[in-house]
Amino acid sequence: MRKLLLILITICGVMLTGCAQLIEIDDQESDVLAEYMAGTVLRYDVNYHEALIYPEATTDTTDSEDITENGEIADSDDTIKASDINRNGTGASNSAGTQDSSDFSVDKQNGSAVSLASLYKDSFKGKFSIKYINHKFYNSYPDEYKFFTLETTKDHKLLAINFNIKNTSQKARTLDLKNDKIKYQLIDKTGTVYNPMLTLLNNDIQYINLDVAAGKTRQAVVMFDVPENMDRSNLELTISYEDRTTVIDLNE
């Protein structure tokens, strides 16, 4: 047995001779290597049970997210409020909920208030026309099941604001608004601002991309998730694109 051990050590020495770089190992890694080599030599001994010495796991009870940029440990008393969690789990999301009206303004005095047609002129390039039709409140949308339906969150209603978009050219065109970054916001009587839902509706005006035959009209919609008991008087839809804004009074 001793001869076999000496032979193995000699072979290892020959193999390592001429190496240009030595690998540095710590004491624990050295113990693991020694145990492995001894186990290799003695594995044929029926009274020997091979085992490795594994590094001891160290536990760090400090959450990495609780350490500030200055290396200080922050208080862990902060809790997530239920109101900070999106309540809508029905195939659509309320992209930004509501916001205070102080964060929103329409600069009509500087000439940014334009008509609906003027706001979309860069997108349509004279090939389409757009017209506001109506708005309706729903418990689920659409009324008739197609691929899926949108459901309201608790104590809320779905508000659908509808438009007709017509291909005014002499040939079929693609109606594509998905990359135009047109902004839609609903404002109620109290000045609360609601942002639109993100849906999978193929006619959602925020990212509609449909083929429209010459002279034909397609309906587009923008959806909002609003409180059921909201004051429905004086509702306004504000549409903004770059430095242009148009306001649609939904009560007219």
Structural features, described:
- This protein folds into two domains: 1-14 and 24-56, no CATH class; 94-249, Immunoglobulin-like, CATH 2.60.40.
- With 252 residues, it is of the alpha+beta class.
- Helix content is 15%, strand content 28%.
- It has a five-stranded antiparallel sheet with strand order 2-9-8-13-14, with no helix packed on it. A three-stranded antiparallel sheet has the order 3-6-12, with no helix packed on it.
Strand content: 25-35%
CATH architecture of the largest domain: Sandwich
Radius of gyration: 34 Å
Tell me the number of helical segments per DSSP (H or I, 4 or more residues long). 4
Order of helices and strands: HHEEHHEEEEEEEEEEEE
Low-pLDDT residue spans: 50-96, 100-111
Task: Describe the structure using short key phrases.
elongated, 2 domains, 4 helices, single chain, Immunoglobulin-like, 3-stranded antiparallel sheet, 252 residues
What is shown here, in short?
The protein has four helices and 14 strands.
